[in-house]
TrEMBL record:
The keyword Metal-binding does not apply. SUPFAM superfamilies: E set domains, Galactose oxidase, central domain. The keyword Signal applies. It comes from Roridomyces roridus. This is Glyoxal oxidase N-terminus-domain-containing protein. PANTHER family: GLYOXAL OXIDASE (PTHR32208:SF96), SECRETED PROTEIN-RELATED (PTHR32208). Keywords: Signal. Residues 67-184, 249-446 form the Glyoxal oxidase N-terminal domain. The lineage of its organism: Eukaryota, Fungi, Dikarya, Basidiomycota, Agaricomycotina. Pfam families: Glyoxal_oxid_N (PF07250), GO-like_E_set (PF09118). CDD domains: E_set_GO_C (cd02851).
Length: 544
């Protein structure tokens, strides 16, 4: 591990400014063909997004002529380049270590389903290392895999991965094997990379408590769900199901994919508040035969502040303009949160055996795509935090296996959606959601405004220290209240954006308006050491 009191910066961008010369709007644009289905996506440099799919039948090929299931998207040329992988990255997670190396974690065993067209190896315990990549086009940037020597302690399909305060990755949960819907063989543990505790995973009572148990009938191949056996004897399953544990029975984790996000942190207190939105209020003891793609998703958002007083107050409830399954939340550099994508009905996953007969749309368990994003303003009074005013609608459904991320340039990048086993095209008139290869951007209004240029931005900054950068502010831009944010762009998969965070930093502009002195985040708990994007916004652009 490098020195823990440093954070390194990938790049610097100045966002926003006063609105000059009219009011530009938000705008969707299509940008080309992703080459592989972008089931997972992470920004790995100022110009590149790394995408992963399952090892399947994607159109893009590696230079040696084999089907690709990893690719770099070039934000400058809008083109994909295949990246060669050994193991199957289906439903992996990932994050960037403090030293700048991206790690893709876990995946699938392709032995049964994915072997049609690839030679992918079992990725259930895989660790795939990438970069740091310094070539703007990603030339010579490759994935390193050595499964015999570098691997997880436990098999994990669908793990969650975040960078923690010592710059390493905490890897949580997942399932030991592929399943169609509910968890069957959960990995109720945490482990770390680089490893801690001698490589022995830590048991997680949380994961153990929240997972169903089942009776499996071998003869009829059916499951009967049971109340959870792992719950502490003092808490019965009915209580677990009640408001005290999740307001109105809101479920936000797979396959009832709501989404959750840490709200931006502000000095001096950096008080953490969590927002969890959408998902479903169905009990996870519901047999799949009672679930339908037409079941309304929840509009509820639940927010809690993680201080003793906040926890005492409990969850504060709010409502999105519409219910959403598989929406994703993106913290923006001005402190707002964009809620985007997903379906208004149904559930995550596809072709789940035994779904209410005839209710799948093609293979999709979800329906009624949500085409218009929502802007959430954390500091607005309860009841007026959600807005869709001025936000455009796309016509591209982004359902299961879709991704979205903020870019280093400050706009949103959207790709993927594939509620099917492999790449699938439904002919016109045949119900179903085809594999989506169209890449889109969503430009906030500030993308059209003149933007200040930064200079002398340090490659690394130390916690709790002041540093000064050069700034060239275009005429007409208000300098009265500049906000400076350090942004972790996170890793997008399955409606979650792990590691994403925005930390605001105090700053002062010099009298001549040419230098900005900034106070770095105070410590490694406020911003886990590692790469970040440096964004500026003028406070007058709070609505962007
Ligand atoms: C970053 O750390 C990981 C884990 O120790 C290591 O495998 C990788 O090679 C390191 N990357 C660089 C660029 O040093
Ligand atoms: C699998 O590997 C063999 C040997 O390298 C190669 O000839 C073949 O084209 C590969 N198949 C696919 C689908 O990648
Ligand atoms: C990529 O690697 C090749 C072979 O080692 C080398 O000749 C080339 O200069 C490298 N290109 C870049 C941009 O690093
Ligand atoms: C569950 O959510 C649906 C859809 O929003 C709503 O109609 C229903 O009343 C909710 N049920 C409970 C028990 O909260
Ligand atoms: C796509 O998946 C189906 C099974 O779901 C399989 O029968 C078919 O062969 C696959 N197609 C390709 C091109 O691999
Ligand atoms: C950084 O600047 C602030 C405000 O001017 C000051 O209070 C603080 O002591 C400075 N910190 C360091 C480490 O110099
Ligand atoms: C900026 O100036 C204000 C007012 O003079 C002061 O309170 C603050 O600490 C300064 N911050 C930095 C980073 O210099």
């Amino acid at each position: 591990m490098p020195s823990l009191n440093k954070l390194s910066l990938l790049s610097a961008t100045l966002l926003g400014a006063a609105l000059v010369g009219g009011t530009p709007g938000w705008k969707f644009s299509t940008k080309g063909h992703s080459g592989i289905l972008a089931l997972e996506a992470i920004v790995v440099s100022p110009t590149l997004v790394l995408m992963f799919d399952r090892a399947t039948d994607d159109p893009l090929h590696t230079p040696d002529g084999n089907v690709a299931w990893g690719a770099l998207w070039n934000l400058e040329t809008n083109e994909p380049t295949a990246v060669k992988l050994q193991s199957d990255s289906f439903c992996a997670s990932g994050s960037i270590l403090s030293n700048g190396t991206m790690v893709s974690v876990g995946g699938n065993d392709p032995a049964t389903e994915d072997l049609w067209l690839t030679n992918a190896t079992n990725g259930l315990n895989a660790l795939r290392l990438f970069g740091p990549c310094t070539d703007p086009a990603g030339v010579n940037c490759t994935i390193f895999e050595d499964i015999n020597n570098v691997h997880l302690a436990e098999n994990r399909w669908y793990p969650t991965t975040i960078r923690i305060s010592d710059g390493s990755l905490m890897i949580m949960g997942g399932n030991h094997e592929a399943t169609t819907f509910y968890n069957t063989a959960p990995s109720n543990t945490y482990e770390f990379f680089p490893s801690k505790d001698g490589g022995v995973p830590r048991h997680s009572p949380l994961l153990a408590r929240t997972v169903n148990t089942i009776i499996y009938d071998i003869d009829t191949d059916t499951e009967t769900l049971l109340p959870d056996l792992c719950v502490s004897p003092s808490v019965d399953a009915e209580t677990i199901d009640s408001q005290a544990y999740s307001p109105n029975g809101q479920r936000v984790s797979n396959p009832f994919d709501g989404t959750a996000q840490l709200l931006p942190l502000y000095p001096p207190a950096y008080t953490p508040t969590i927002l969890a939105c959408g998902g479903s209020n169905k009990s996870d003891l519901t047999p799949t035969s009672e679930l339908s793609s037409q079941d309304p998703a929840l509009a509820q958002c639940s927010r809690i502040t993680l201080t003793p007083e906040g926890i005492e107050q409990g969850w504060e409830l709010d409502s999105m303009p519409q219910g959403r399954m598989m929406a994703e939340m993106i913290p923006l550099p001005n402190g707002q949160i964009l809620i985007i994508n997903g379906g208004q009905t149904g559930y995550a996953a596809y072709s789940s055996d035994g779904f209410l007969p005839g209710t799948e749309v093609g293979n999709s368990n979800a329906d009624h795509p949500a085409f218009t994003p929502i802007l959430y303003t954390p500091w607005a009074p309860l009841g007026s935090r959600m807005s869709q005013e001025g936000l455009p609608a796309t016509d591209i459904p982004r359902l299961y296996h879709s991704t979205v991320t903020l870019t280093p340039q400050g706009n949103l990048w959207l790709a993927g959606s594939n509620p099917n086993a492999n790449t699938t095209v439904f002919p016109p008139g045949v119900p179903g959601y085809s594999t989506e290869f169209r890449v889109e951007t969503l430009d906030p209004p500030y993308m059209e405004l003149p933007r200040p240029i930064l200079s002398d931005v340090p490659q690394k900054i130390a916690f709790n220290e002041n540093f000064t950068i050069g700034i060239d502010i275009p005429e007409g831009v208000s300098t009265s209240s500049i906000q400076v944010a350090l942004v972790d762009l996170g890793f997008s998969t399955h409606a979650f954006h792990s590691s994403a965070r925005v930390v605001f930093m105090n700053s002062n502009l010099s009298n001549d308006g040419k230098e900005l002195t900034i106070t770095a985040p105070p410590n490694n708990r406020v911003y886990p050491p590692g790469p970040g994007m440096f964004h500026l916004a003028s406070e007058s652009s709070n609505v962007l």
